């Protein structure tokens, strides 16, 4: 599952992000509403989680803007304002659910899972990404190739999921670094190359056809042949 998390409290964001990534979910994040809006418009997410009180564009205006643009992705609003009127305002703005702070992480996860199963969400259609004989289930966190189960670490899983969401597209090291690791690309590190090699060893070893190809000077691409 791919989540967009918008929260201006650094410790809260880091804690929630860590917990979600430990569940092998991919998390993009933003500390302000404007950046969150841009990410929501540029990428496909299963669920968007946003605090209401944010710098710049607040969570309510963010909801109104995204719904006005026709985006149907489920939105969960977080807020320390837990009165009934506050919840009604949030739902009226276009949110699908509202969770008052503080909250238990287990309830937080349960709310996200419930939203992801709603009609119109990406997981409600099919949680399995497929290319050639490779299958990745974003819900069950499983990977198979030609029916054979392949065990991946959370980071390898996130990297393969990104490849599967962008098949036959050349992905630069910068893009992979920013989308899978959520960090600005450092030309002095070879972390992308290292993890691509890890992934290749697991999804290609023992199979005749290679799927992850290096495009020299440009990056990598998932394709047959």
Structure description:
The chain is an alpha/beta fold and 225 residues long. The chain has 2 domains: 2-123, Rossmann fold; 127-222, Winged helix-like DNA-binding domain superfamily/Winged helix DNA-binding domain (Arc Repressor Mutant, subunit A). The chain has helices at residues 10-22, 33-42, 59-68, 84-92, 105-116, 122-125, 154-165, 173-180, 191-203, and strands spanning 2-6, 26-30, 47-51, 75-79, 97-100, 128-131, 134-137, 142-145, 148-149, 212-215, 219-222. A 5-stranded parallel β-sheet has the order 2-1-3-4-5, sandwiched between helices. Helix 2 (33-42) runs parallel beside helix 3 (59-68) and helix 7 crosses helix 9 (191-203). The radius of gyration is 18 Å and the shape is elongated. The mean pLDDT is 86.
Which sequence of SSEs, written as H and E, runs from N to C?
Answer: EHEHEHEHEHHEEEEHHHEE
Strand content: 15-25%
Helix content: 40-55%
Largest sheet: 5 strands, parallel
What is the H level of CATH, i.e. the homologous superfamily of the largest domain?
Response regulator
Please work out how many helical segments DSSP would assign: 9
State the distance separating the first and last CA atoms: 28 Å
As laid out across the biggest beta sheet, the strand order is 2-1-3-4-5
Number of domains: 2
Shape descriptor = elongated
Named CATH architecture of the largest domain: 3-Layer(aba) Sandwich
Which regions contain 5 or more consecutive residues with pLDDT less than 50? none
Q: In CATH, what is the class of the largest domain? A: Alpha Beta
What is the CATH topology classification name of the largest domain?
Rossmann fold
- Radius of gyration equals 18 Å
Overall mean confidence score, pLDDT:
86
Structural class by secondary-structure content: alpha/beta
Give a count of the beta strands, DSSP E runs of length 2 or more.
Answer: 11
